[in-house]
Design goal:
The complex is a heterodimer of chains A (557) and B (372). By secondary structure, chain A is mostly helical. Chain A is 55% helix and 2% strand. Classes of the chains: A mainly alpha (557), B alpha+beta (372).
Chain lengths: 557, 372
């Protein structure tokens, strides 16, 4: 604002005031009035005149921002908008170890966003800053949060350097890519685009039409830089099929070792490829049935060298520190060999029978670990099932040949229901202490048998007298993943039980509190889902009043 | 307190609240005490209801004498303050920078003794000005000059028009009383926010009378760190009576309420940035110490400009700057997001430091969004 009436006079006044009227006579002096008072009189008049004369500045239209693009999605139902505001307002208190019975709202945000995106709602504009702040702090939230934030979120992020991450992340969200039938636009972006834009374009084209994607990549392959080739080649994972083999075979002779290794890995995921056949032959020559023993036994003869052919097919010759070279090579061969070749090689046995075979000379864990990696890479459910074994087997709970991390990966190759069933069986037999990682790969909400197994196990842990925070990981998962319909079954657990003699002091109360939080969270999730699924008619005046009163009672920032 | 801390609190104090939190807070505390004492007096008179009317008149006589004594002390305080300001100007403001807080704290304590809490908090704020960044001499001279004007106003209050005299009394820190006739209306809650100092939390609630088109201010207080009792939901309307404080301020006291707050589609009428600036200029006529006035900008777009922001008229090439304090608040981003580059209505406080947005409405349908 500009309105200083007499800048010269004012500046003179300021100078006199700064130096003191003893040293500098002020411009305004009145007869009979001491200099300081006269100076203050004049300054007061100037100050009030300046303030009273303030006028807006001139700001040409060219300086104004482009309006945000229209968001065609329907607005959130009012109740869901209020819910989002409360989820976003929940900041974990610093150093708070125990949450009491209050649900951890921030942890529900991913689910809420997934639901809102599934229904295709647009966010309320004024919640975008809080949404972007939340996504800034948690990278795992970003894809869903940015999708939900939509075009206005992106527009806003350009204005605030704190939200720059949104601009980097956007190419993957698919906005700004040419349409499927825009051949010219596609070619131009591929030729001239930034690297991230080109990766996004390749992924998008590949999703629509694997062949077109491959041809796009082949058109510039020879001129790409090595590190770009690696990333671009990786995009072929999407829609990988037998037609990709010739291109991948050529990439096996690439100048870059990393590109060669990736090409080999992709080829090994194609059981019908020539590379897979070569690997099958190599692996097959290392593993054989020993018919001379009483019980059928597998004998393993690891390779003695890593020859040029193996290296060309992606086998890394140098073993990591602490590992024998020969077992390192064997592992890579078995991992890359198609699993489908083993039954024929091993007397027509099924995967389950093969896994059950004795293995001579301590090779068992090496061989089984390699089969696990192969089952994960080739997404072979039958082998995964065989390697997982029975969930209630005693060795399933201990450190067997297959680690928990590998089990979790194997489970991911099974269907959701089968996965949940296996983990339920595991928990029923072995309790919760090892279950966290396995629960993490189960579909949300948990299937009924799995949910019951978890609740039963928590109940057993409580009766055993330990503190609930030994199970806080599983409790947190249960709050987010248990089917809200199970809430009713938990009511019996809310009471503080009589304390057994050997129980930890006060544990019963803490358990009741933990179960209370679980139930509250489940109810909240049920409400959350309902708000998003069934748009309410215009909220009643009473509901609006309460909600606004809540909002109004929050002290302002 | 670190220098940075001082600077921030100085800026908050001077810009969050238009006529500054602690100045009002000073009179507020006074008011709380005053109400408590009169309340006690009321109940004792109730218990001795049989006593004669003469005791009533002697009470009012006592009150008059008390008021006289207080006015005398304030006059003494003003005279002393004038002397201090003259000394300051004689030696120069540059010297004051070296003196630091001590000088001002001591003078403020003298004004508390003089029962002029309004003067005391103004004086205390002067101490923070030299640490408030570039151009501090300009701000310090302005504040000293306005303080001098207030002293002069008090010393010559008999010659002032009644409105201006009431403003002087309020600014000095004499508690006024809501005496206006009750005005019943549907009062739309425009904004609610708190400011706090070491002693007191001050809550401001801005109301807009849907029929009367008046903007009114409710003040309530809580002890330090505690929220004041009165809480009203922004965006809803309250059917109630209010009565005005003297001196032409927007301040009112809330009287009878005729039901709970309800949803209300009304919005305050908006003006252009030109109109808002003129509003502030007009209001200074009745109260030259006014930091800002409440006003609603009708169709404006937030426009970024380096680190600062403008609120630009959608239909003209004029714009008001956001006040320094509004630039650094998270609410700014809610306002920008709500606008999306399109016109919005913004209620806020418009003064010589710029515009401080408090509540905004989208261009089309939509609820009020707090943006402070």
């Amino acid at each position: 604002m500009n309105g200083t009436p007499a800048p010269d006079l004012w500046e003179e006044l300021v100078t006199s005031a700064l130096l003191g009227t003893d040293r500098r006579t002020p411009p305004a002096s009145a007869p009979g009035r001491p200099a300081p008072a006269a100076l203050l009189d004049a300054a007061a008049e100037a100050a009030v005149r300046r303030r009273a004369g303030l006028r807006p500045a001139t700001l040409p239209a060219t300086r104004r921002p482009e309006p945000a693009p229209q968001d065609p999605r329907p607005a959130l139902p009012p109740a869901a908008a209020r819910r989002l505001a409360s989820l976003l307002a929940d900041r974990p208190a610093a150093g708070a170890g125990r949450r009491g019975t209050a649900p951890d709202l921030m942890e529900l945000l991913p689910q809420w966003l997934a639901l809102a995106n599934a229904h295709g709602y647009a966010p309320p504009a004024h919640l975008l800053p809080a949404l972007l702040d939340a996504a800034r702090g948690r990278t795992d939230l970003r894809p869903a949060a940015l999708r939900f934030a939509g075009p206005r979120g992106l527009w806003l992020a350009r204005l605030n350097p704190h939200w720059r991450f949104a601009l980097r992340a956007t190419p993957g969200s698919g906005s700004g890519l040419p349409a499927a039938d825009d051949v010219e636009g596609t070619a131009r972006l591929w030729e001239e685009g930034l690297f991230a834009e080109r990766v996004a374009l390749l992924t998008a084209v590949r999703q629509r039409d694997p062949r077109a994607g491959r041809e796009l990549l082949a058109s510039t392959w020879a001129t790409e830089r090595a590190e770009d080739r690696l990333m671009l080649l990786d995009s072929l994972r999407t829609g990988l099929g037998p037609d990709d083999e010739p291109f991948l075979e050529r990439a096996l002779t690439d100048r870059s070792r990393n590109v060669r290794a990736t090409a080999a890995e992709l080829l090994s995921a194609l059981p019908g490829s020539a590379l897979a056949a070569r690997m099958a032959a190599r692996a097959g020559s290392c593993v054989a049935m020993d018919r001379t023993r009483g019980t059928p036994t597998l004998v393993v003869e690891a390779p003695h060298e890593c020859d040029a052919g193996m290296e060309r097919d992606g086998v890394l010759p140098k073993a990591p520190a602490g590992r024998g070279e020969r077992s390192w090579w064997l592992g890579q061969l078995v991992e890359a060999a198609p699993l489908g070749a083993w039954p024929a090689r091993l007397g027509g046995r099924t995967p389950r029978e093969i896994v059950a075979l004795r293995v001579a000379d301590d090779w068992r864990s090496e061989l089984h670990a390699a089969w696990c990696r192969a089952a994960v890479r080739q997404r072979d459910a039958e082998w995964a099932r065989a390697l997982l074994g029975s969930p209630s087997a005693p060795e399933a709970g201990g450190p067997g040949a297959v680690s928990l991390a590998e089990r979790a990966k194997l489970l991911a190759t099974l269907g959701a229901e089968e996965r949940a069933g296996w983990v339920a069986g595991f928990i029923a037999a072995h309790g919760l202490s090892e279950a966290f990682q396995l629960l993490g790969v189960c579909a949300v909400p948990w299937a009924a048998p799995l949910g019951r197994a978890v609740v039963d196990a928590l109940n057993i842990a409580r009766d055993a007298g330990s503190y609930p925070w030994s199970f806080s990981g599983v409790m947190g998962l249960a709050e987010r993943c248990l089917d809200p319909a199970e809430a009713g079954r938990l009511n019996a657990l809310l009471a503080v039980p009589d304390e057994p003699e050997d129980a930890s002091p006060g544990a019963g109360g803490y358990w009741a509190e933990a179960f209370q939080r679980l139930v509250t969270t489940l109810r909240l999730r049920a409400a959350m889902t309902e708000e998003l699924t069934a748009p309410m008619p215009e909220a009643s005046a009473e509901a609006t009043t309460t909600a606004a009163a809540e909002a109004g009672s929050v002290p302002s920032a | 307190m670190t220098e940075q801390g001082v600077r921030r609190s100085a800026e908050q104090v001077s810009a969050v609240a238009p006529d500054t939190a602690s100045r009002e807070a000073g009179s507020g505390l006074d008011e709380v005490v005053e109400q408590r004492t009169t309340g006690a007096g009321g109940s004792s008179s109730g218990s001795s209801s049989g006593s004669s009317a003469s005791s009533g008149s002697s009470r009012s006589e006592a009150a008059r004498r008390r008021a006289e004594r207080r006015a005398e002390r304030i006059t003494a305080g003003c005279t002393e303050l004038e002397q201090r300001l003259a000394d300051l100007l004689r030696a120069g403001l540059a010297a004051a920078e070296q003196e630091g807080y001590g000088l001002w704290e001591e003078t403020a304590a003298r004004m508390v003794d003089a029962q002029a809490p309004g003067l005391a908090s103004r004086v205390r704020e002067l101490g923070a000005v030299p640490g408030s960044g570039p151009d501090w001499p300009v701000r310090l001279l302005e504040e000293c000059a306005l303080l001098h004007l207030l002293d002069q106003g008090w010393l010559g209050r008999e010659r002032l028009p009644e409105g201006l005299a009431a403003a002087v009394r309020t600014r000095v820190g004499l508690p006024g009383r809501a005496q206006g006739p009750p005005l019943r209306d549907r009062w739309l809650v425009l904004a609610q926010y708190d400011t706090a100092d070491a002693r007191l939390t001050t809550r401001r609630v801005w109301l807009y009378g849907v029929a009367s088109r008046r903007t009114a201010l409710l003040l309530s207080y809580g002890a330090a760190g505690r929220a004041p009792d009165l809480a009203l939901p922004v965006g809803l309307a309250l059917d109630a009576e209010v009565s005005a404080f003297p001196g032409g301020t927007p301040r009112v006291a809330l009287g009878e309420r005729f039901g709970p707050p309800v949803a209300c589609g009304a919005r305050p009428e908006g003006v252009t940035t030109e109109g808002a600036a003129a509003c502030y200029g007009e209001a200074l006529r009745g109260d030259p110490w006014l930091e800002s006035v409440p006003v609603t900008l009708g169709r404006v777009v937030p426009v970024p400009d380096g680190d600062s922001w403008w609120l630009a008229d959608a239909d003209a090439d004029t714009a008001l700057p956001l006040s320094p304090v509004a630039r650094s608040r998270p609410g700014l981003w809610r306002l920008v997001a709500l606008s999306g580059g399109a016109p919005v209505s913004v209620f806020g406080e418009c003064g010589h430091r710029g515009f401080t947005p408090l509540t905004a409405w989208p261009g089309g349908e939509g609820e009020a969004v707090p943006v402070h």
